[in-house]
Amino acid sequence: MKEQEVxxxxxxxxxxxxxxxxxxxVYFIKERVATVRNMKLIIYSNDHNPPHFHVKSNDGSxxxxxxxNNCSFLSGVIGSKDDRRIKAFYEDPKxxxxxxxxxxxxx
Length: 107
What we know:
By secondary structure, this protein is of the alpha+beta class. It has helices at 3-14, 80-90, 93-104, and strands spanning 17-21, 24-28, 30-36, 39-44, 52-57, 63-67, 73-77.
């Protein structure tokens, strides 16, 4: 295997999530919306419906999903204080517009 092929495989594995659909790779590139304290708010391109965003911490203790429609908790693990912080951030009209614009360009 050539060096370029190995590098390409490593980049696909660690930077992007790749799924093969009808023989063609489909890339899921994450876009960070914001960072609230130690939590990254992320939207993945081509992610499934319903519209949602992910909340993850660097240490892995937080890994949750929230609805983009009303910021309701969908699944995962997050403490009540951090949940309130995410919801407070979401209530800012600029944050809502940013979420919607990123989800809207996901194709």
